[in-house]
Amino acid sequence: MWATAVGVVRVRALETEREDALFRDPLAQAFAAAGGLGLSSPPLHGDEAARRRRQGVAFSIVIRTKFLDDLLRQASASGVRQVVLLGAGMDSRAFRMDWPEDTRLFEVDTAAPLDFKASVLRRERAVARCERITVAVDLREDWPGALAAAGHDPTVPTVWIAEGLLIYLPEDAVELLLARIGAQSAAGSRMGLTLGSRGVIERFGADAVPGSAASLWVSEMPDDPVGWLAGHGWEAGSHTLRERAAAYGRPIGTPPRREESPGGLISAVRR
Prior knowledge:
It is a single chain. By secondary structure, the protein is of the alpha/beta class. It is 39% helix and 14% strand. A 7-stranded mixed sheet has the order 3-2-1-4-5-7-6, sandwiched between helices. Strand 1, helix 4 and strand 2 form a beta-alpha-beta unit. It starts with a helix and ends with a strand.
């Protein structure tokens, strides 16, 4: 699954080149090129519907990146100094965002993506803007133990990010992940999640190419994500892609086909 992270950074690299970019990710092009996806790569072939679906996925990546960047800035402004990126992939926030001096950022992922990432970072001579700690562990294993061994302190607030992750996990694994996050979260902790919207697997996964990101999607958000997270001890807000895109000056041109369900961009606070 980690290889799909390289496709995500290609989207971020393309966004970075825009004059009106919602964020700048200077390392994204290096990650994409190292993974064989340079910005000049020819577009994938397929019918018009498939092309529109790919564009929709790329657009959602841009909006969710901006959304979670803002959430992290707000958490830092509130005094949170521990950051945990679950399934970190090629995330470069440790390098591209401004952090308070005493921030510690943990990147949790399996060894393969972290090793690939390290090789690119060395080649680019990238310097993190905070204390960056990598934790090589599979999220199906005892990642809380590995995180604690790496220096995470569950007695002080943490901001947790699970971006583009939960959609790949079956429901029981999602529940376990949320329970484990809660057990490591002091009051005042924050959390940013992206959830697969209702029906997204049917729309995007039905004719997905085997091995592609969409072919691996298995989990959509619950009907009531706010209530679901309340049951896990979080006070959450749910935001739609359309709502956030409009707020960022990138409105979706087409009208909603039906009344939109709760959105899959989630911000939450531990009470």
